[in-house]
Amino acid sequence: MHRWTLALLTAGLLATTATGCAGGAVADPGSANPGSAGTGTHRAEGASRETLRLAEQLLIKKCMENQGHKFWVEPADPGNVSSLFPYVVDDPAWAKTHGYGTDLRLRQEAEARRDPNQRYFRSMPANTRTVLVTALNGARPEGLSARLPGGMEVTHSDEGCQAAAQRELYSDLQGWFRATRVTGNLANMRVGLVANDKRYLAAVGPWARCMRGKGYTYAGPAQARAAVTQSRTPWPHAKEVRLASAEANCAVSSGLSSVAKSLDTEYRAELRRRYPRESADLARLRREALPRARAIVARGD
Hints:
Layout: H1 3-7, E1 16-19, H2 40-66, H3 81-84, H4 92-98, H5 102-114, H6 116-123, H7 126-137, E2 143-147, E3 153-157, H8 161-170, H9 173-195, H10 198-213, H11 221-229, H12 237-254, H13 256-274, H14 276-299
Antiparallel strand pairs: 1-3, 2-3
């Protein structure tokens, strides 16, 4: 979701709606994938997705400028602790530097305040802001729809520069919308299935005993993380790092990290078997769009 849209949520100008009943927010497709980081395949997929993302941004920029607006290509989202470590922080080196990522979040917030798109948006009067959001997202959340596995129907405008960019890049805009929304929802489902699996819950016991040996009495990683990320009073960075480092070291030594990665792989495969069409469509659409994306990036459109 673009930052302009986020800025106008309270004004009721969001270009996506959802009806029905389904649990969880839509996550980014392919996120929360412990166990694949560092592999050659993962790096190649990451490079391809960044090319697709950048091409889409360039197309949006061209579309917005053609309508007389300004637009700057936005950097990739570096992710947060929940997307990088959906089950347990299990990278001691990362934890030693970032704790639970509060430093990264504060840095992102500062960068967002300096973001040229944000500054441009904030400089405009209210009626012009509405025009900008409409140009980007379309006037009404109509034209695209997808039924998520839990029964919720999500819709989005098939107009606006974002839709135009995705249509040019992926050709089948409706197919792209459906594939990304459904697979994103499956990513959330997968995390929930792992976290509630009896094998994962059993593995939390040794982790908690390891943590008690380090002076922490949290029942599980979720409780340890919440103590920092949901605290009304910010933790000192050094204190946050100590807790996250204990969590990461215990995740490795207790075996919880290995169990989480194994279960994540298992449920990923199971959900793909249950919903083969969406995963196959997403892979195909990305594959077919990649040559177009490379050409767009090379031209610097």
